[in-house]
Specification:
The protein contains 3 helices and 8 strands, in the order E-H-H-E-E-E-E-E-H-E-E. By secondary structure, the protein is an alpha+beta fold.
Amino acid sequence: MSGLVDGSKRDPLTDRVIGSGIEVHRQLGPGLLESAYEECLCYELYTAGISFKRQVALPVRYKEVRLDCGYRIDIVVEEKLIIELKTVEILQRVHDAQLLTYLKLSGIRTGLLMNFNSAVLKDGIRRLVL
């Protein structure tokens, strides 16, 4: 089963990434473009010694064909966590669906939606697991 995960299951990597996101939000607050938060979060991850890749191409596999449809994952952390950044008023189900699709296509099992347009970042974070 896939979907939202309750907070009772702790994951040290996810906790570290969320801590980095909270630091970015604490410094900048809401209201900037997604690209600004991505740049600053990557800086925080780098200074924390967490390996990551940005704007990772995500091909679609259809039958025996690999198609480049222009999908890009915002950040992949240590090849085991996808971070999808948003700056929206409210996270919607379509955002969950997008992240779940990225998880399925990439083979990565855990993802974070981080909405930096939230007054308090922890209220704008969702952790999804396949």
